[in-house]
């Protein structure tokens, strides 16, 4: 290929490459919130799930305490379901949280310590990741955390709005009867509470992935067509004849 031919191909790529780079994505991922950013505050959701971690920028200081709430705003939502991916707090004694333990308490309702406790009188502590899920039957879930003697404290919770009954077209029906947003299907997080939204995901493509593949193929074909047209029809391009370099 001649120098002119190489230059033409370069200009063609520059013309059509942006089509490849703007492939749409259905989801930007599950947003991460830090509990210490929202002490005495409320995080409001619609149908999206969130990730909740304890402390931005490391571990909380000794004596740290914080309570905050998550609120599902949609009328159609029955409640919130929370599952855990990580739990790493001060060690418990024989599996029981004590007054000196760091612990996390969860309540059904908008108020700390006055709502229905979902984690019992001892709360959650230690390094054991809870296998069970925690469900509210109101549109609020309240979290309270206090530090103990350990210097490192962390957890990661997945909080998802749900409703029962008949699911809408853009929702996924969990095995436990909950309806969650279909965009949460096969996202790597247990949004249903029973992990049924993460089953049989190996060959499942989301709408965003399918659109991305289609747009990518169209962009690639456009590049080839553009190169052929430029090669054979434009007087300022190199001709289709073989030329020595």
From TrEMBL:
Gene3D superfamilies the record matches: Low-density Lipoprotein Receptor
S-S bonds: 167-179, 174-192, 186-201
Pfam families: Ldl_recept_a (PF00057)
Residues passing through the membrane, by range: 61-81, 203-229
Organism: Sinanodonta woodiana (Chinese pond mussel)
Segment forming the signal sequence: 1-29
The keyword Magnesium is assigned to this record: no
Annotated keywords: Disulfide bond, Glycoprotein, Membrane, Signal, Transmembrane, Transmembrane helix
Protein name in UniProt: Uncharacterized protein
Matching PROSITE patterns: LDLRA_1, LDLRA_2
InterPro entries on file: LDL_receptor-like_sf, LDLR_class-A_CS, LDrepeatLR_classA_rpt, LRAD2/Mig-13-like
């Amino acid at each position: 290929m001649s120098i002119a031919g190489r230059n033409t191909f370069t200009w063609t790529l520059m013309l059509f490459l942006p089509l490849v780079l703007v492939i749409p994505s259905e989801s930007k991922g599950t947003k991460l919130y830090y509990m210490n950013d929202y002490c005495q505050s409320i995080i409001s959701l619609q149908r999206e799930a969130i990730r909740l971690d304890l402390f931005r920028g490391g571990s909380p200081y000794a004596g740290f305490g914080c309570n905050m709430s998550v609120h599902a705003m949609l009328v159609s939502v029955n409640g919130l379901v929370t599952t855990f991916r990580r739990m790493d707090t001060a060690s418990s004694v024989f599996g029981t949280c004590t007054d000196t333990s760091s612990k996390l308490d969860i309540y059904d309702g908008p108020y700390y310590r006055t709502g229905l406790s979902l984690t019992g009188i001892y709360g959650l502590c230690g390094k054991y990741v809870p296998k069970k899920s925690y469900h509210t039957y109101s549109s609020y879930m309240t979290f309270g955390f206090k530090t103990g003697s350990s210097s490192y404290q962390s957890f990661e919770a997945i909080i998802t709005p749900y409703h029962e009954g008949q699911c809408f077209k853009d929702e996924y029906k969990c095995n436990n009867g909950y309806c969650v947003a279909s965009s949460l299907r096969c996202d790597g997080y247990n949004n249903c509470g029973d992990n049924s939204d993460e089953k049989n995901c190996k060959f499942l493509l989301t709408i965003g992935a399918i659109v991305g593949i289609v747009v990518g193929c169209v962009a690639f074909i456009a590049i080839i067509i553009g190169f052929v047209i430029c090669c054979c029809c434009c007087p300022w391009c190199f001709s289709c004849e073989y030329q020595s370099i």
